[in-house]
Amino acid sequence: TREIGLRKALGATAGTIAIQFLVESVTLTLVGGMLGIAIGYAQGGVVSIIMKNALDVSWQPSVPLQWVVIVGIAMLAMGLGFGVYPAWRAGQLDPIIALRYE
What we know:
Oligomer: single chain
Largest sheet: none
Helix content: over 70%
Number of domains: 1
Low-confidence stretches: none
Radius of gyration: 21 Å
Order of helices and strands: HHHH
């Protein structure tokens, strides 16, 4: 809150603050999603090893490219969707109240 007030006091517009919040939201969403995909793929490899050793079943995890694209677009939409309201609120914040808040 203090950072928003300081930026507005120095002349930042509501739009630039909103864009900053949206970029942060989408970045966090995409990084989290990519980590989730990587961890899920690694777990698939572990399951493959367990199945091969315990059950003598050969199975390779695979993720079709179309699903990676679909999930990436969905993550981008969620990051934007859930970031719009906080970004808008941050842009509308009164700098005096924001600086006094903390």
